Amino acid sequence: MAFAVRQCDSIMDNHAMEKAKIFLCFRCHMSPKVEKSGCAISHHCFLRRWSRALGATFLLFLFNPAPLIGDSDQTLGMKEFHLSKIRSALDLRAGQMREDSVASLARSIAQASEKHSLDPMLVLAIIEVESGFNHKAVSPQGAQGLMQIQPIVVAELADEGRIPPQVKNRKLNLKDPSVNVQVGASYLAYMKEMFGDLKVALTAYNLGPSWVSKKIAAKQALPLGYASRILAAQRSLESRLARLETNRQEISPASMEEEAASAKAANG
Length: 268
Known about the structure:
Elements: E1 2-4, H1 14-27, E2 40-42, H2 43-63, H3 71-93, H4 99-115, H5 120-131, H6 151-159, H7 177-195, H8 198-207, H9 209-217, H10 225-250, H11 253-266
Antiparallel strand pairs: 1-2
């Protein structure tokens, strides 16, 4: 007995219905004869193939679930949390910077850290050790800005495809905090990818990858003093932020109300 797949305006649009009819006809090894009233296939075949299609759709959803409602809000919340943490760290150390400059630098560090899968506290530690948060700093060797970037690093990153190649032929303002952080984070991520170990990567960031590679090839010990300083600065920063958060909780309005309520209850 023939079964007609009729137009179903209340369930799906006509375009989707036509695609479904052709699909079902194909799966039943029938010619996709699409008529205005529908595609003639057997009732049994229709149900069997339709149930299989639904089952396949369920498995696809099970193993590749779409983001649940609220996931985007959670992601946004995590970004806001990290940005707030970076801002707090900058407030501890970058007191000489203007308010808008601190906000802009916090966003740059958050974006660069996320893009290159770096801990923003590590980026902040490098800035603290390298320049003391002085974006105008220039070393005797010519390294510039917050993360003390050598101009040759820009060319190397362009050659490796880490930054747009046209940047190589354009003189970047490495004293611009945003530019400096973007280049510095990209270079650190490159060193991590090249050497694997964070301490070795930090040593290469400071002394250059060619020098570090020669030391490793010669099986000579690497000087890890710089890496130890960076990691110590990171731990110190994390510790200061933890103490700051504890102090904030202790003097929050909610805690003050709780203390007042406790005192009132104790006095009867």
